[in-house]
Automatic annotation (TrEMBL):
Organism: Duganella aceris
Name used for this protein in its record: CopG family transcriptional regulator
Amino acid sequence: MAMTLSEIEAGIKLLSLQEKKHVLQSLLSEVVDAKLDLRDLLTIEAMEDIDNGNFVEHQDVLAWANSLGTASPLPLPVPKKK
């Protein structure tokens, strides 16, 4: 059964300062690891898209970006299958 927020808060109040620091360091480490895992997954996904020819050409992005703020901005470029 999951703990309620008030149960967690009560448990934290019982910890020493050193124990609280250890808990925070552990949580921070887990967050950093999770972010790195997500970054790895997103990089792999992006590389698979490129391998499958699913990407926007650099010159199309530049043309779109340069058109922003003009009287006739270009539509957002879309990936073109190669």
